[in-house]
Design a protein that fits this description.
The chain is elongated. Strands 1-2-3 form a 3-stranded antiparallel β-sheet. The protein has 7 helices and 3 strands. With about 160 residues, it is mainly α.
Length: about 160
């Protein structure tokens, strides 16, 4: 264990906590990136409403907006990212077979349990990198005509 003054509650390893933090940061970055992309396509939405929406609701908007322009890749990746993130967030603390504090979770529907181990977190981070690349490629290929809706996002900052 490592020293922390933030809590008296036992924590997983420093590396595991770091991976959890990175996972949260890349996910929230991509949610913002998705919202930006939706706002550039649709005057029917505003930043205030979308930022308070659940990721699944936002992904339904991806299907209605971005997917109609660029195909299903971004929607499909975001859907998988959301599922993996939900397994992390709805996980439970447990001790794995090696005696380490870790998160456990279960598949929704089947109830099959598994550990949210470092590999799972790294897979999640890498999938977020792929989603970010796809969003960046989408943004770069659809620059023209998007200036009108950019103000919807920036006015709120």
């Amino acid at each position: 264990m490592y020293d922390t003054n933030l809590t008296r509650i036992s924590l997983p390893s420093k590396k595991y906590c770091y991976f959890l933090g990175v996972a949260q940061c890349v996910f929230t970055y991509n949610v913002s990136f998705v919202i930006e992309s939706i706002l550039k396509l649709s005057n029917d939405h505003n930043w205030y409403d979308l930022i308070d929406s659940e990721a699944g609701t936002i992904n339904r908007e991806v299907k209605k907006t971005i997917s109609k322009v660029s195909g299903p890749e971004i929607y499909d990746k975001f859907e998988k990212v959301i599922y993996m993130r939900n397994r992390i967030i709805h996980g439970f603390r447990c001790t794995d077979n090696n005696g380490r504090q870790i998160l456990g979770t279960k598949e929704r529907g089947s109830g099959v349990q598994f550990y949210v181990d470092e590999k799972y977190l790294l897979d999640f981070i890498n999938l977020n990198n792929e989603l970010c690349d796809a969003l960046d490629e989408y943004r770069n290929s659809h620059q023209e005509g998007s200036e009108n809706n950019t103000n919807n996002a920036t006015k709120s900052m």
